[in-house]
Amino acid sequence: MPVAYVNQVFTLSGGDVSYVLHVTEEGRLMNLYWGRRVADQAV
Q: What's the whole-number average pLDDT of the chain?
């Protein structure tokens, strides 16, 4: 499962799906996207 971390955004991809999370300024983890796999560095 590839994991990318760019500009406080985590992208976890596996198979045909991706889960994208953002780290807020307060350090909280927020869901940005869950669904069909996104291209690497697309977010």
A: 88
SS3 8: coil
- Burial class from Cβ neighbours inside 10 Å (0-12, 13-18, 19+) for residue 18 reads buried
Long-range CB contact pairs, 21-29, < 8 A, 24+: none
Residue 23 is predicted with a pLDDT of 93
Model confidence at 2: pLDDT above 70: yes
In a domain, 22, yes or no: yes
Rounded Cα gap, residues 43 and 33, in angstroms: 9
Overall number of domains in the chain:
1
